[in-house]
Amino acid sequence: MKFADRGEAGRRLADKLLHLKDRQPVVLALPRGGVAVGFEIARALDGALDIVLVRKIGVPWQPELALGAVTDGDRPATFIDWDLATSLAVPDGYIEEETTRQLEEIERRRKSYCEGRPAVEIADRTAIVVDDGIATGATMRVALQAMRRRAPARLVLAVPIAPPDTLARLLEEAADEAVCLETPAGLGAIGYYYRDFHQMSDTEVTDLLARAPRPTANKAAHRGS
Beta partners for 54? Predict the structure, then answer.
């Protein structure tokens, strides 16, 4: 076990991100687990905390295997591993239906987590995209692509654990900087590296967001505007 829980992982990760503290960073966490990590980073860096809503598109008969991912926004970003889809003979109809279903789930979560909470403006600022770990990298790739469209001055990927090849690929394709504490070649399940890796509830997420610093009015834009 490398981490007691997501909070400890976030505090340790924050120590490696202190060089960004004076750049007015915005921490963008992937729910649910990434919010617990991001909360600690935002607190340590005196940065605003917001979320990136991303949903995995799983293989029909093996949902934990990521075929791709989708995120919300005015222009939803989608990534599909078409080589994998072809090799597994996944029907195009399934991909379309599952993408629509996951976008509906994103909308449900957005209303649950963000009702009355303004989105943080990241244009020309340092944006730190955070999760509690990376396995295939599909969801993180989509999150980074979506955040890049919002024109941050610098886009940073920060995770406690990720495979070295996946981390390198994401850095090359989507991020300006990557900070990671553990990069085991044979990663296995992310949960193996946490003593407490419980499935966070929507209530836990909304509680952390409520406790996080709110963006000031001149640095926020209402969602959907």
Answer: 71
